[in-house]
Amino acid sequence: MPELPAQDATPILVVDDDAAVRDVISVLLGEDGYAVTAVSSADAALDALRSTRFPLVISDVRMPGHDGFWLLDRIREASADTAVIMLTAYGDTEAAVECLRNGAADYLLKPPKVTDLIRAIERALGRRSLALARVRYQEGLEQRVREKTSELSRALRDLESTYSQTLWTLVAALDAREHETSDHSQRVVRYTLAVARRLGVPEREWADVGRGALLHDIGKIGVPDAILLKPGALTPDEWVEMRKHPRTGSNILRTVDFLAGPAEMVLCHQERFDGGGYPRNLAGEAIPLPARIFAVADTYDAMTSDRPYRRALGVDAARAEIARCAGTQFDPRCADAFLSIGEDELARLARPAPPGAMAALFPAR
Question: Which of 67, 172, 277, 356 ranks highest by number of CB atoms within 10 Å?
């Protein structure tokens, strides 16, 4: 009596319309330890494949109704990792070649010799195991790459967050040095970003625009107090020193890779649309758009804030001055975008932000 296959025996599906062939192959493979299911048609084979996962299918090529080619195509579509061995009649070489071309693992002439059949099964299952191992390795490798990429992204965000916290502290110290409230820098950030949104600046650029606005006066760290805090008019020599701060600030920021964009904005924030600014006398669209936006926001905040040499102007007077200087000091498009902000929104933007709210305006990438 043939030995019953073990519970972990490899399942094999045999498909042939000839009952004698099915029975012989089933007995032979059962004696060799395989768990065999035998069916008489391609349609019955598909039904069996839907309910059971077979690593290997042995199918006749020529069958009534749907033939072995049809079944092979369906198996490739539904279960690409299932190995298929085709049985062909003697002399049917074209059919054998077509089977291999369509994805069959092997073919045998009917009736197959036992040794040839067992070797073909072992080869097909071996190649299948190797292919599955490669897929698992590839999937594992891709998963490890995703995990490492995620870890690196988190590390970069943490580093950028640390940079940002340091920058906030530095800006607060600079504001305090000029006897400004720390909210001066925060206000110009809020005004600048509000105008940037109205002009359609892409959201991916908001972080750099916000940082440039925040750090616009970082170069004043190199300006002596006697000049920076002087309540009266500056002498020509003092103006030479004061006008170095955009380039000084830009040079400081360029040492940090992720601040290259803000560095350019800091360098250009004192340029004028008509070419009368400094340090490079740029004009029109030669001035980067973020710097043109910032010029309007910063001037408005300066006019509506108390300074050592004058009292703050009212909102209406400040808006009228921006309108008057559109086309000379300011890019008219940026001035119009700023003036489109209603007074209620300007008042909201001018109010001190709660802790952490400003950082959320341009988070780490």
Answer: 277
